[in-house]
């Protein structure tokens, strides 16, 4: 029977893939509300708040500053690799769970693969979260404190806020880290060590063992 660690890795990979796909299809990574620019922008999609029109990757180029277009494209490619990598990882976990593969040595390669997959997600989220002002032209001094005063002088709001799409994508990245840890445990002797310790504790605390100790 497959170990609990294997099942945790399988479940985490499926949940991570779900979060990643949702993040890829969402425009709610960043909510931008300036005087002349009101869009919800994701990694692959965006929506114009005023016209309610939404577009995919080919339209996003119109929103990204030209000098950062290549970097933004690299983020899109890395997040796509993050998605494909977690899909492959989930399939591999499923094959191990049904004992299609028996060799434990395969988990070493899977651990390295999962680490690279997780790294692609971290790279995407880190750069998107720290360079969004440059990506979308929010570098004007009036946006430095991320607060914009309404035209009538009453009230204010944030120029840019992270949306739920970015948060869900971050959750998917955390889950991919759990997947990496689980595959690493399977690849090492840690799982066998924990199992042996559990068996010894069971033997030491069983009534028969206590009875034998008392007789001795």
UniProtKB/TrEMBL annotation:
Residues passing through the membrane, by range: 77-98, 110-129, 162-185
Keyword Membrane: yes
Signal peptide (from-to): 1-20
Keyword annotations: Membrane, Signal, Transmembrane, Transmembrane helix
Domain of life: Eukaryota
The name this protein goes by in its record: Uncharacterized protein
